[in-house]
Amino acid sequence: MACTEEQKEYARRWYAANKEKLRARVRAAYAKNKDKVLAANKAWKAANRERVLELNRASRRRNPETIRRNSKAAYQRRKQRLGIEGLRAEQRERRKQPKYKAINAEATTRRRLAARACLNKDKVMEFYREAQRLTLETGIPHEVDHIIPLKHPRICGLHNEFNLRVITAEENGRKKNKFDVDAYNESIRGIV
Q: How far apart are CA 107 and CA 120, in angstroms?
């Protein structure tokens, strides 16, 4: 049976007039059946994993500022609760988890393989010292960037002085593992 516009308007007015009453009823029902509701939600999320991921991605795209603000607030609460040493201990423990161990092992292996070809450790360390010096002098975080990324779907760079440059951490975060042909051409101009 289809609702008429008049019935829809009546329902909207009734809902607006009884909003708090309905919320209280929903909260009471949730409190009474909390375990059932949580189990049902968990089952739905397990059965609709792709949909959940899609909804989460869409939410992050719609509300980047809110997510950034909430992340910072959560970090500040943890920092206040644990202190800076507690946070560092928490990060060390997190790195011991199998998931992170696998990621770190893969990255370390990739770095070792990439570093084998014509590695001059002294020249490589100069880049890291320069990044540290610029960070201290300017107050802007600088990082050493691999011009040709170590991990890329089509190309694999090397961890040597010919593939490194010092850029701001913000710029490095934007670049991620993209390959910038112009930056590469600029870097080899003095070598060739």
A: 20
Any residues with CB less than 8 A from the CB of 155 and at least 6 apart, and which?
Answer: 148, 149, 179
**In this structure, are residues 145 and 152 in contact, taking their beta carbons and an 8 Å threshold?**
no
CA 84/CA 110 separation, integer angstroms = 31
Spatial distance between the Cα atoms of 89 and 135, rounded to a whole number of angstroms: 25
| Average pLDDT of span 110-120 | 65
Cα within 13 Å of Cα(72), Cβ side = 6
Looking at the predicted structure, is the pLDDT value of residue 192 above 60? no
CB of 177 closer than 8 Å to CB of 149: yes
| Cα angle 147-150-155, degrees, rounded to a multiple of 5 | 85
Q: Please state, in angstroms and as integers, the Cα–Cα distance from residue 119 to each residue in 104, 129, 161, 165, 184, following that order.
A: 21, 17, 7, 15, 18
